[in-house]
Amino acid sequence: MNGVFLAGASGIEYFYTPYLFSEAHWHPDPANYAFAHPDESGAWHLVYIGETANLLGRMRTHAQWEAAQRLGCTHVLVNLNPDGVRGRRVQERDLIARYRPVLNTLLLREAKPRVRRMGYYPGG
Fold it and tell me: In terms of pTM, does the model score above 0.90?
């Protein structure tokens, strides 16, 4: 099967299968996915990375697909992932941390450090 391994920031590699967006017959499977386009050398450029419990429903009305097309995307790279929402989100964040796709603006924001509080703090 033709595909590509995408390595996350953690060093873990995930296998993705490329599909032409216009020719794909989506199924209601849980998956991680990336909107991408290959360059002349065959390397993939990722502009959006996501996860879904239902690939069919997500691809029908994806808000980022038009923006991805304007950036040259023709393909969706798909990793079928039945590991549940937590497993898919771990993979999604791992790949976003490595590739920093331009359309993942919400997940690319710098996380604010949380202050750890212990003990009793009376309100008032």
Answer: no
